Amino acid sequence: MNRFVDKVVLITGAGSGLGRAAAARVASEGAKVSLVDRDAASLADTRELIEKENPGVETLVVTADVADEAQVEHYVAATLEAFGKIDGFFNNAGVEGRQNLTEDYASAEFEKVIGINLTGAFYGLQHVLRVMRLQGHGAIVNTASVGGIRGIGNQSGYSASKHGLVGLTRNSGVEYGQYGIQVNAIAPGAIMTPMVEGSLRQIDPDNWEEIGQQFVQPNPMRRFGEAEEVAALVAFLLSGEAGFINAAVVPIDGGQSYKY
């Protein structure tokens, strides 16, 4: 497929996990990609991977902290300077935060998680929507979570941030559909990424793989999802094939959110 020939796709959290997988997927279909992450080394690895697999692909890397609005404004401006437009935006950067009961959840940790996952996503939406409204077209995919549509224990900050992002997605889709812009969200469940591995290591650093296998047993499919499976959904939602999907939150969780 070549759904993204002559298209520009901007991706935050592109240094690893879902962001890296999505960048590789859209680049393989012809996209010019603007890669954003706060970790310069991981960004360089993503760029190297994409350029090795897709000779001739046009890439831009921008080191930025999405929780800082000035840096968000910068990554949007840098993308426009390099490519002249933004056709698709995978608003993906996020952190899980420490795990704890709500009564013991540190306020500083809560503010940090909200600042990246919700406020940072809001900044990205604001600045990219302005561009897309002037263009008269665009597609945005936010990374929410099953934790944004149901409760998950010991993750107050994460769950609150993702519930908020679901609300922003639906609201923005309603507002901007009239301008030819779609705003949707994905709600991944247990996807094996570095962030999920880090979460499992918080529980038991020596036996995290065993904990992981126990973790996925309640899932109807009895396994972790793969980042590439999520990337395929993101690519679809950013493509013209999903032209009448708007203000939707699409679970990709093996049926986890529907089981109970």
TrEMBL record:
It comes from the Bacteria. Residues 7-211 form the Ketoreductase domain. InterPro entries: KR_dom, NAD(P)-bd_dom_sf, SDR_fam. It holds the Pfam family adh_short_C2. Keywords: NAD, Oxidoreductase. Belongs to the short-chain dehydrogenases/reductases (SDR) family. This is NAD(P)-dependent dehydrogenase (Short-subunit alcohol dehydrogenase family). The lineage of its organism: Bacteria, Bacillati, Actinomycetota, Actinomycetes, Propionibacteriales.
